[in-house]
């Protein structure tokens, strides 16, 4: 697919992908591994594909261009979904220079144990292709230390690597040709689950990039669609998301053994709705709902409630695992509270509250506990708790 007279997409659409980062990230709509061929007087190849598709990728690439005519290999990120095709490619062109960030040299050597012709570059370094140049911009922790962007002059194309992408497979590889609701939902999910811990770096990098005053006509990320219509709209979204993002939404995340904690969740939701009828309320069972979807709803929420019964002096495993992931995602500016049923020891709510504090949430109460299965009086207490919570937030 030609992006311009100079740039050609040579990546792979992965329709079957359903899990990413091992099994850590759900990809219900597949993904793409975007690789770009830039031809001027010199030819540069930007990024490769995930390792399982390496041979297919190199065969296809060799049908488009004599591999020996590739002058420069650009490796903006060492993660295997980007660099997995490098060993197969470099087997054919072992002496070609590989341009990457200084940290990229360490990462690529660490992954592949090869000493290719590495050419480390830093922000502001330029590589002439003839009438055009590639300008390199380091982007550490978006989302690895080695990430970098590159910018093609004359064409005003930003190759943004892991920033501004999403996991979405489509034959229509441009942002204006796909379902807009789906596109931005997947963009938010991508940000919430991958980039949110690095929001400070995101804000800093966007300011730095804009300060360079480079015109941008197209943004080419490493996953998902290419931004050709109003490309800076996704940059604006990132600036918004990076600023301790929250909507008028309360998410109630819970797991339950014998439905008592579920009934508490529903009653608390009813109380919130009575007191704040315009506030969006989401109830999410952590043992039945995809965890990445839950994390996206947490990202959208101003307040989050976590509920679990007490089991073996602890909490249910789906909640424990989710809270560990939430802790690492470093949400900012969000309020939270805990609730749950118990039978005799009752430590669950305290464990939830401690975990929420540790994850950076502002607790709005010490939590709500109900002994055994909640009766009518207990459920009314939950409704009242929801009403008070809505007033407090």
Task: Describe the protein's architecture and organization.
The protein has 12 helices and 21 strands. With 393 residues, it is α/β, with parallel strands linked by helices. Strands 1-6-7-8-9-10 form a 6-stranded mixed beta sheet. Strands 16, 17, 18, 19, 20 and 21 form a 6-stranded parallel beta sheet that branches. The model has no long low-confidence stretch (mean pLDDT 96).
Short key terms for the protein model shown above:
393 residues, six-stranded parallel β-sheet, 35% helix, six-stranded mixed β-sheet, alpha/beta
Give a concise summary.
The protein is of the alpha/beta class and 393 residues long. It contains twelve helices and 21 strands.
Largest sheet strand order: 1-6-7-8-9-10
Count of alpha and pi helical runs: 12
Alpha-beta classification: alpha/beta
Largest sheet: 6 strands, mixed
How far the N terminus sits from the C terminus, by CA atoms, comes to: 50 Å
Cα shape: elongated
Average pLDDT:
96
Give the topology, please.
Layout: E1 7-9, E2 12-14, E3 19-20, E4 25-26, E5 31-33, E6 36-39, E7 43-46, H1 54-64, E8 72-74, H2 80-83, H3 86-92, E9 97-100, H4 102-112, E10 117-120, E11 126-128, E12 133-138, E13 148-152, E14 157-161, H5 180-195, H6 199-211, E15 218-221, H7 232-241, E16 249-254, H8 260-275, E17 280-285, H9 291-300, E18 303-307, H10 317-329, E19 335-342, H11 348-358, E20 362-363, E21 368-371, H12 376-392
Parallel strand pairs: 7-8, 8-9, 9-10, 14-15, 16-17, 16-18, 18-19, 19-20, 19-21
Antiparallel strand pairs: 1-6, 2-5, 3-4, 6-7, 11-12, 12-13, 13-14
